[in-house]
């Protein structure tokens, strides 16, 4: 008798309505196939960004000087422009104007000296906002964000899409909040997104190519996991492949456009996916304290029903009418929440779960420019046509000059002097003091030399026109590039030209500032979540120590703004000047002067003063100040230096406006 076939309970039992609404629970009933469903959706978004990756690669080539690699078709054959020019016997010349343009814009960005500043929404908590600003700036120093943002701005100019990843992990022998630059080639995003701010995104992720050791350190929790990963990534685990694979360091390759497999067999491909899932939940409003939060359906009885019953009993016992008792109001809803997957190309789920961040979002910060109708158009792409035409004119100029007659000698046949061959005549003609004797014959033309002036054919005017177009289209003119003005040009006119050039870049720079602000907001949220113990922070170069107390800062709602940095020489000199005036008028003490001022001797002198005070309080004779410290104080507190700084601040030099 044949055994009865067993069916899975998930297939034969009737499904609840709540189970159908829960997208994760529904997907789990499909077993291992659900990983492939997520992979196929991710690959769909990845493929839709193929044109962006190719445009970015082209922009990068033009920015860094590889400007003759566009594919053309000649007589049915496809080849690069460089190959076509080489087949004609010419040299493809170029004059890289785009790189200079990008450096100028980067210089404008760095000269702004802006930094994010925290403000508590409650004015009574503004002191905590100052503390959080110091902590945020310490974290930016830890992550070297000045350099990271400069390189990110360069990516913004070249590709038009920039991505950072915010996380809290163990790195460099410490647990802290970290910021990672994400290569846009490895990033994919929901193609249905149309919001400039990115608030309507529902699917995004990143492709990781990591070593086998890194894979195991991040995902292996048991020896069985290690053995399973070894079977999945057999080739990457085999170190013999490293000897057979080599790539030039510092040069990227475009052919790694495949979504599932890496071109480097020594790396493990891991696809990180963040997707918005849906499930039924209750939105709760606690009228007793004003809190608004969400709970799962299965927690309703415990967190709403039982609490309301207990409050009714307490209120009635206190003589309160039922309509005066503050209860928890729960509203049923379909909640969209972020859910992450770490997948292998073979359909294995390495890790999954709901977002672990209290900001309830994904760890990525991204900005696309300008993102009209979901399109990305970079700053570099606007001037590629002018760069191409400039290169063509330079190459054409070189070709005409090489092909034109330059001192060609026409020597009539039969006029050779006795005893001299044509080679001897050519050698003698080329000497600066050469003489060729010959007897002229009647009716025979005199030898003559032909030189053709091929410079005045209009190419110079066309080049100047293209250079002018280059500045007009990009908005980066000579004043912004630091070029000197013409004779008798006033400083006001030069500053106005610089201001006008900066105005044309203001939209680009402000868009990047919002990217910095979005990243700083996630940094602050992560610090409030993961900094669970008291810490002392001090910004390098400042005499400001702050203490982070999670009990007082954890639940504070901060807003951020991007303001001019105070970490500039002009600001420090102005602050020192004001502090010196206050100290001379005896409005502040010496200790306050050293604490809030920026003097090179401040820390040592402040420590010496406090040490002398402690010795006097203990009845001891204070030690004398060291000669080295006295020399530093005299050099740093020279009143002539103060007067010079005051004079400089009263007559400031022209600065690049932002």
What keyword list fits this structure?
single chain, 658 residues, alpha+beta, six-stranded antiparallel sheet, three-stranded antiparallel sheet, 25 helices, 19 strands, 44% helix
Number of strands: 19
What's the helix count? 25
Alpha carbon gyration radius: 36 Å
Separation, N- and C-terminal Cα atoms: 87 Å
What's the pLDDT, averaged over the residues? Answer: 80
Q: Stretches where pLDDT falls below 50 for ≥5 residues? A: 239-246, 644-658
**Overall 3D form:** extended
Characterize the largest beta sheet: strand count, sense, and whether it forms a barrel.
6 strands, antiparallel
Q: Helical proportion? A: 40-55%
Strand content: 15-25%
Structural class: alpha+beta
Short description:
This protein is 44% helix and 19% strand. The chain is α+β, with helices and mostly antiparallel strands. Among the domains are: 66-152 and 378-404 and 454-566, no CATH class; 277-337, no CATH class; 409-451, no CATH class; 569-650, no CATH class.
């Amino acid at each position: 008798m044949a055994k009865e076939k067993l069916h899975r309970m998930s297939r034969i039992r009737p499904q609840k309505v709540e189970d159908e609404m829960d997208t994760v629970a529904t997907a789990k009933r499909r077993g291992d196939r659900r990983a492939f469903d997520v992979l196929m959706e991710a690959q769909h978004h990845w493929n839709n960004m193929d044109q962006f990756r190719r445009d970015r690669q082209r922009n990068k080539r033009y920015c860094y000087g590889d400007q003759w690699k566009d594919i053309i078709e000649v007589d049915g054959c496809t080849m690069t422009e460089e190959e076509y020019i080489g087949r004609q016997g010419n040299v493809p010349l170029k004059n890289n104007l785009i790189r200079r343009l990008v450096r100028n814009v980067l210089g404008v960005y760095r000269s702004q000296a802006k930094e994010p500043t925290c403000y508590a929404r409650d004015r009574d908590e503004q002191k905590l906002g100052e503390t959080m600003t110091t902590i945020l700036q310490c974290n930016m120093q830890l992550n070297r964000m000045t350099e990271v943002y400069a390189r990110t701005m360069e990516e913004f100019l070249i590709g038009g899409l920039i991505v950072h990843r915010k996380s809290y992990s163990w790195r460099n022998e410490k647990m802290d909040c970290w910021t990672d630059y994400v290569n846009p080639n490895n990033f994919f995003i929901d193609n249905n997104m149309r919001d400039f701010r990115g608030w309507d995104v529902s699917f995004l992720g990143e492709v990781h190519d990591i070593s086998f050791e890194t894979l195991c350190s991040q995902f292996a929790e048991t020896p069985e996991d290690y053995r399973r990963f070894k079977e999945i990534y057999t080739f990457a685990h085999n170190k013999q492949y490293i000897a057979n694979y080599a790539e030039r360091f510092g040069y990227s390759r475009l052919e790694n456009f495949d979504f599932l497999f890496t071109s480097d067999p020594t790396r493990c491909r891991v696809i990180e996916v963040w997707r918005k899932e849906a499930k039924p939940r209750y939105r709760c409003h606690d009228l007793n304290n004003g809190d608004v939060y969400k709970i799962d359906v299965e927690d309703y009885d415990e967190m709403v029903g039982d609490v309301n019953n207990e409050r009714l009993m307490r209120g009635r016992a206190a003589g309160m009418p039922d309509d005066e008792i503050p209860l928890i109001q729960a509203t049923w809803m379909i909640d969209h929440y972020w859910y992450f997957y770490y997948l292998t190309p073979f359909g294995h789920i390495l890790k999954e779960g709901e977002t672990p961040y209290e900001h309830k979002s994904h760890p990525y910060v991204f900005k696309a420019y300008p993102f009209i109708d979901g399109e990305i158009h970079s700053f570099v792409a606007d001037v590629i046509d002018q760069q191409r035409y400039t290169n063509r004119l330079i190459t054409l100029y070189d070709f005409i000059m090489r092909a034109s007659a330059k001192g060609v000698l026409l020597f009539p046949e039969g006029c050779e002097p006795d005893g001299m061959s044509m080679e001897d005549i050519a050698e003698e003609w080329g000497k600066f003091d050469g003489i060729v004797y010959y007897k002229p014959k009647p009716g025979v033309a005199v030898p003559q030399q032909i030189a053709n002036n091929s410079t005045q054919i209009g190419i110079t005017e066309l080049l100047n026109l293209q250079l002018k177009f280059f500045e007009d289209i990009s908005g980066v003119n000579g004043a912004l590039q630091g070029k000197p003005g013409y004779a008798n040009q006033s400083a006001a006119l030069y500053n106005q030209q610089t201001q006008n050039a900066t105005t044309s870049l203001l939209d680009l720079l402000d868009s990047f500032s919002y990217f910095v602000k979005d990243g700083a907001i996630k940094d602050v949220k992560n610090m409030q979540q993961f900094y669970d113990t008291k810490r002392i922070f001090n910004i390098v170069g400042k005499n400001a120590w702050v203490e982070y107390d999670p009990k007082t800062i954890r639940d504070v709602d901060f807003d951020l703004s991007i303001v001019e940095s105070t970490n500039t020489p002009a600001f420090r000199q102005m602050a020192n000047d004001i502090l010196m005036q206050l100290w001379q008028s005896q409005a502040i003490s010496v200790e306050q002067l050293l604490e809030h001022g920026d003097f090179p001797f401040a820390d040592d002198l402040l420590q010496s003063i406090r040490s002398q005070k402690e010795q006097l309080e203990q009845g001891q004779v204070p030690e004398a100040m060291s000669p080295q410290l006295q020399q530093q104080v005299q050099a740093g507190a020279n009143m002539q230096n103060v007067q010079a700084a005051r004079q400089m601040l009263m007559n400031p030099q022209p600065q690049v406006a932002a």
